[in-house]
Write a structure and sequence with these properties.
elongated
Length: 98
């Protein structure tokens, strides 16, 4: 399993956790007065975000990407739904290399 494949999986999972945090946990906290939803979802998302960064660096080293691409991939982790586009594009890149 390549670091690119691992990064793709982490990007997809991190994207799901981000959307869950924004669209489920936050409304539960503020509209239903359930702050634990954000506590646990936020913790899980934080771990996945760090893992996203670590696996991004691993893939960068393995694939010899340009710095600009790595910056864009990192910025994508901050934008809702963008990590799904990252995963899709990297899947195409992985298939093209195979």
């Amino acid at each position: 399993m390549t670091s690119l494949h691992i990064f793709r999986r982490v990007a997809f999972t991190e994207g799901i956790s981000y959307l869950f945090l924004l669209f489920i946990a936050m409304p539960l906290k503020y509209w239903a007065d359930i702050p634990l939803a954000v506590k646990y979802t936020g913790w899980a998302h934080g771990v996945l975000f760090v893992l996203y960064g670590v696996t991004l660096i691993m893939a960068w080293q393995e694939r010899k990407w340009k710095f600009g691409k790595v910056v864009l991939l990192f910025i994508a982790s901050l934008i809702p739904f963008a990590s799904f586009a990252v995963e899709k594009n990297l899947k195409a890149e992985e298939q093209k290399q195979a």
